[in-house]
Design brief:
heterotrimer; A mainly alpha (about 350); B mainly alpha (about 325); C alpha/beta (about 500); B: about 325 residues; mainly alpha; ABC transporter involved in vitamin B12 uptake, BtuC; two-stranded antiparallel sheet; two-stranded antiparallel ribbon; 14 helices; 4 strands; disordered C terminus; C: about 500 residues; alpha/beta; Rossmann fold; 3 domains; six-stranded mixed beta sheet; 22 strands; about 35% helix; about 25% strand
Chain lengths: ~350, ~325, ~500
């Protein structure tokens, strides 16, 4: 909120914009019609629309994931929570209720899952990666329990519109993730939330001494993540008109973490940018599109992702960061905290 | 001599004995040698990979790549045996070498770039799975004389149970793992890393060598698990063993090993594997229970053990906290 | 008695520079065999830097070290150990998850065919530890024994692996009286074996009990080397705390102040601080004197609720307060600038502006952000009022100098308009200019009617601004001085007294 002025936001997301532009340019190179848009029956079609639409689940997930990672945490359970939310929505519909009730039920379930994680992390002080592993393992079982092991299909037009419908010519999921993203960014930056979350992630002891209620804030952050995951789960279910407890959101937690990392947010917590994470999600989706269009076998998808992660790791590495810092003495905020520290102290810090 | 550090292991053992007794009370057939033999055979690859995971978790790390490495090894073997005249034993050796080198490389990145193991092995997971896809997206059947011979090897126990080779391999790996962890300098260094990296460094533990060795062992055992899995299924499929890393982590934790490192035993992991196998066997026997209960029960066990460990850690460190008297440990 | 024994270890002209600071300036340290040598000095005096230079954790920037007549310059603690210099730290540096024997032999286990011989190792460990007066089962986990036993195991490991020089860095900091005797017994045995032992501690009684000689450091320089038989505790304290500030600090001492604002009655916590009672009036400064580890910081920590007290009450204007968390204290309009600026004060990657706003914003809750105009107004106000020198208020606070970080932290708390401001070592590690400004600020705040509780090891400072000084030693309140009795000599006397003085009555 405070130090966010337009030029600094632009500077912050510049690396992501550049990467996105490069990936899109590659797309254009292999498929000259990539940017083409056409309108049929009041609906816009085109590859760009597809990227925005297909990227919706990961984009939604990375909104919450960014906040969690900013607090020095992580949430491995979001994929499983998606499955649970989809299952709840489908079973509410199967029970004869309307799509509104189904949506509310799914969101409530997601929120509950998030709060559970939050309590484990903030109250019982279990490491986030361990705490959220529980729900990651058990979550799909719970989802299957709800759907009783079948793919629970539904035909409710209201629900289906959430995943496959259009609003003002664009697919609904696009509006949903852009809307939620804008809402969360606004709330986080217009209120003091963003600053307090960053303070917890950077130095929890000092934050506590400054009077920040880190416990409640942590629980809230995990709650928001559960909520985002639930919304993503509903969209995925609505898209295929059914809840598939086994495959809905499978491994999407990893994509979401990847999007956050591509967004230049440090896994060690602290300063964050949701906008950059959202761009990260779009970059991942554009890479997927590129692989599809370029005729490369889709098998390469994972290898490219791995290479992306490794490249970003190297850039974020404290050691490499230090070397870059020495080179540029100032430099771009590429996410890794480019502190001026001697190799010796950085080792010491890692050790703690 | 019962010590606090043995408590989780004892709880694991007790859980297993109780669970088995309950199962047997309901279905006496579960005591048959056939069930026991199948328990070992069906969980052989998981057990082998869980031994490697025990090393990694004891040192305070995590390895998310093992499931993908198993799949890669399986596909690699299937494709090599189909497309070349390489003798299977050489192919096995080659597969083990690749998997070990892969693990060692991840360990080197973790140590030298000072990156969290979680994210490095995540990249490894994508890479190994991707490499498996590139080799073949289809399931490749393995038709090989040596495979037939090896699969036909078993010891018949009274009661009709067939103790197969791969179960034996798993037991051997558990024994070797226990020996290395508890009786060698490397093993002690693994525990030392889990006890505290800074202290371990001050005490002269070679961090680089140990970290690389740990992930190399995990990778190598994942490769061995891949070989065992291909013997088990007679095929290589790039979509196989998705999520096995989670099962392995769960088995280690249910086996009483502290997820943040330093405390635990290979023997615990063995019983962790047996408990997980038992749940599945019970569900098969019951016939009315659905498979998803496996996941829920494992999740609940995971949670229970995490809480148990948390309680123990809290009980042993609360005294120190008072002494240091600082606000919140940072 | 200057017997010409060749010192076992002789460090000469040791210098160490950090960016923007001289940590050690041509320091000399002479260690004789069979002698326990105390290394004394307040925080930041250079003790730990000197130790790190000797043990190879740091590379020295100048000077020579001779060990047994040979020039040495170890590049790592392991190399130092191999040369014969072993170290034991305050925090037991052993692994809590291993057994006693495993800790003792880590890295040099007895093996046969590559397998560790556990039984033989346990037997050997038992024999070794018996030499140190411990008869314990070495197959038990380390943590099943008390910290004192762990400390002896750490000493045994260090001596077994090095054997010439043993550096003990505050080994008794978290031990009680009996446990200290256990460690001292071991030290005496080692002394008899002819080791040269360096003993770092903040407990003067212990220095006089166990040590033969002392080197005193202040601000990176040696200010004296003394044979302990020949000196009194007062002299040592005087050397440690120094008097260089006398001419500079010119604050006027306050009068008795106004109404009683805060009363502490028996505030304490087991193992941390014995019950302390005192009262603070509006418009007065109460000083907390004592050496490091005397309970100064602990008192501030308890009063602010950072650690919950388990005895006593705190009243503000007669009303009892519940102080379980810092939030409770902040709600009562208390504020604390902690001693350890880096880990408990600044939020390093946030901007100076956000750091200043943090406490105010935390109190208001996230829903009610301080409006941007007001934020700028507050930040600008304090930037000017406290002369915080930052190129921009948007830069991360970690880039500021220590003095400016401290001023920003003061600004953080002043922005909450506290009634009671607790300052723990407000002038440590900051430059001379900022130092004077902070003292002037303390005076100004007091005149505006704020109550201040200030813990400091700078005696001249305390004398200058306090209307009362409470003296702590060994985590216990041992005296209180008032009015004209507040002089550096009296404070030193109270700190150094071997037997507790009759505590002066604290006016309620």
């Amino acid at each position: 909120m405070i130090s966010q002025t337009t030029p600094s936001v632009f500077k912050r997301v510049l690396p992501q914009l550049v990467i996105l532009a490069v990936v899109l340019a590659c797309n254009l190179a292999v498929f000259p019609g990539f940017f083409a848009l056409s309108v049929h029956d009041g609906r816009v079609f085109g590859n760009l629309v597809d990227v925005l639409n297909r990227g919706a689940p990961v984009a939604l997930l990375c909104i919450g994931m960014t906040l969690v990672i900013a607090t020095r945490g992580i949430d491995l359970s979001v994929g499983a929570v998606m499955a649970i939310a989809g299952a709840v929505a489908a079973s509410v519909l199967a029970g004869g209720q309307g799509w509104g009730t189904a949506l509310l039920g799914a969101l409530a379930a997601g929120l509950l899952c998030g709060l559970w994680n939050g309590v484990l992390v903030a109250v019982l002080r279990i490491q986030p990666i361990v705490a959220t592993l529980v729900l990651m393992v058990a979550g799909r079982g719970i989802a299957q329990l709800i759907t009783e092991g079948t793919i629970l299909t539904f035909l409710d037009p209201g629900m289906i519109r959430l995943g496959a419908g259009t609003v003002l010519g664009l697919p609904t999921p696009i509006w949903i993730w852009i809307g939620l993203g804008a809402l969360v960014i606004t709330v986080v930056r217009r209120s003091a939330l963003g600053m307090l979350i960053e303070a917890i992630g950077i130095n929890e002891a000092a934050s506590r001494l400054a009077g920040i209620n880190s416990r409640v804030l942590l629980i809230c952050v995990y709650g928001v993540t559960g909520f985002c995951a639930a919304l993503a789960g509903v969209i995925v279910a609505a898209d295929i008109k059914g809840a598939d407890a086994n495959n809905a959101g499978l491994w999407l937690e990893l994509d979401a973490i990847l999007a956050v990392v591509i967004g230049g947010n440090s896994l060690l917590g602290g300063r964050f940018s949701i906008l950059a994470s959202l761009l990260g999600a779009l970059i991942i989706q554009s890479v997927n599109a590129f692989i599809l269009l370029s005729g490369l076998p889709p098998e390469f998808n994972l290898i490219i992702k791995a290479v992306l992660i490794l490249a970003i790791l190297v850039i974020q590495s404290p050691k490499v960061g230090h070397a870059l810092y020495m080179l540029r003495a100032g430099g771009l905020p590429l996410g890794g905290r480019t502190k001026a520290r001697s190799p010796l102290t950085s080792k010491e810090e890692k050790a703690q | 001599m019962i010590r606090a550090t043995h408590l989780p292991l004892l709880v694991t053992l007790l859980t297993f004995v109780l669970a088995y007794a309950l199962c047997a009370a309901q279905y006496p057939a579960m005591l048959s040698s056939r069930v026991i033999a199948n328990l070992l055979t069906d969980n052989a690859f998981l057990g082998i990979v869980a031994v490697g995971m025990t090393f990694v978790i004891l040192s305070g790390g995590i390895d998310l790549s093992v499931g993908s490495v198993i799949a890669f090894t399986g596909v690699f073997l299937a494709v090599v045996l189909r497309d070349s005249a390489m003798p299977p034993l050489l192919a096995f050796a080659l597969a083990l070498l690749i998997a070990t080198a892969f693990g060692a490389a991840m360990g080197a990145i973790i140590h030298y770039l000072e990156m969290p193991p979680f994210i490095v092995t995540l990249a490894g997971m994508f890479l190994a799975r991707g490499a498996a896809y590139v080799l073949s997206t289809e399931s490749v059947p393995i038709d090989n004389a040596l495979y037939d011979t090896l699969q036909a090897l078993y010891i018949r126990a009274p009661g009709g149970g067939r103790f197969r080779l791969i179960g034996g391999i798993m037991l051997a790996v558990f024994l070797a793992g226990a020996l290395v962890l508890h009786r060698t300098r490397l093993g002690q260094n693994v525990y030392a890393l889990g006890g505290g990296v800074a202290t371990a460094r001050l005490m002269g533990v070679p961090l680089a060598r140990t970290t690389i060795a740990i992930y190399a062992i995990s990778g190598g055992l994942a490769g061995l698990a891949g070989i065992v899995f291909s013997l088990y299924t007679s095929a290589g499929y790039s979509l196989a063993t998705v999520g096995v890393e989670l099962d392995a982590i769960a088995a280690v934790v249910i086996g009483g090993t502290l997820l943040s490192g330093g405390y635990g035993y290979v023997a615990g992991t063995f019983f962790g594997i047996l408990i997980m196998g038992l749940i599945q066997t019970y569900i098969v026997f019951d016939g009315t229970l659905s498979s998803w209960w496996t996941k829920i029960v494992i999740g609940a066990l995971l949670f229970a053990f995490i809480l148990l460990q948390k309680g123990l850690t809290w009980a042993t460190t609360s005294r120190r906290k008072v002494l240091s008297g600082s606000a919140a440990p940072s | 008695m200057s017997v010409p024994i060749r010192p076992l270890l002789h460090a000469r002209g040791i210098s160490k520079f950090f960016p923007g600071a001289v940590a050690l300036d041509a320091v000399e340290l002479k260690l004789n065999p069979g002698e326990v040598h105390a290394l004394l000095g307040e925080n930041g005096a250079g003790k730990s830097t000197l130790i790190k230079c000797l043990t190879g954790a740091y590379r020295r920037d100048g000077g020579t070290v001779t060990l047994d007549g040979q020039d040495v310059s170890p590049a790592s603690t392991n190399e130092a150990q191999a040369l014969g210099i072993g170290t034991v730290y305050q925090e037991v540096n052993l692994l809590p998850n291993l057994t006693v024997a495993e800790n003792l032999f880590l890295g040099r286990q007895m093996t046969r065919f590559g397998l560790v011989r556990r039984r033989a190792m346990n037997a050997r460990a038992r024999a070794v530890l018996e030499d140190y007066g411990l008869s314990i089962d070495p197959a038990e986990p380390l943590t099943s024994y008390s910290v004192a036993v762990q400390q002896v195991v750490a000493i045994a490991r260090a001596v077994e692996m090095s054997g010439k020089v043993l550096i003990l860095d505050e080994p008794t900091a978290s031990l009680d009286r009996d446990e200290v005797q256990l460690v001292f017994g071991v030290i005496r045995r080692l002394k008899a074996r002819g080791l040269a032992i360096v003993f770092v501690t903040h407990f003067l009684d212990q220095v006089f009990e166990i040590c033969d000689r002392a080197t005193i450091l202040r601000n990176g320089r040696v200010v004296g080397e003394r044979l302990l038989e020949a000196v009194r505790p007062d002299d040592i304290v005087t050397l440690m705390l120094g008097r260089q500030l006398e001419a500079r600090v010119q604050a006027r001492r306050s009068g008795p102040g106004g109404e009683v604002l805060v009363e502490l009655e028996g505030l304490g916590r087991r193992g941390m601080l014995e019950p302390v009672s005192l009262s603070i009036r509006a418009g007065e400064v109460v000083g907390l004197a004592g050496l490091l580890g005397s309970g100064r910081t602990e008192l501030a920590t308890l009063l602010f609720g950072a650690v919950a007290a388990d005895s006593g009450t705190v009243r503000k204007r007669g009303r009892a307060l519940r102080l379980a968390r810092p939030r409770d204290a902040i709600a009562a309009r208390f504020a604390l600038c902690p001693e350890d600026r880096k880990t408990h004060g600044i939020v390093a990657d946030l901007s100076v502006r956000d750091n200043i706003l943090l406490a105010l914003q935390a109190r208001q809750g996230w829903m009610r952000p301080v409006p941007r105009a007001r934020v700028n107004e507050i930040a600008e106000h304090y930037r000017r009022a406290l002369d915080i020198r930052a190129a921009s208020l948007d830069m991360p606070i970690r880039l500021l100098s220590g003095g400016n970080q401290q001023k920003a932290l003061l600004a953080r708390w002043l922005a909450t308009r506290p009634d009671l401001l607790i300052l723990d070592e407000p002038t440590r590690g900051i430059d001379v200019g900022a130092h004077a400004e902070i003292i002037a600020l303390i005076e100004r705040l007091r005149e505006e009617g704020m109550a201040l509780l200030i813990a400091s090891s700078e005696l001249e400072e305390l004398v200058a601004y306090s209307s009362r000084v409470v003296v702590l030693r060994d985590r216990r309140q041992v005296g209180a001085l008032e009015g004209s009795r507040i002089t550096p000599d009296n404070i030193i006397g109270a700190i150094a007294a071997q037997t507790p003085q009759t505590p002066q009555e604290v006016p309620a």
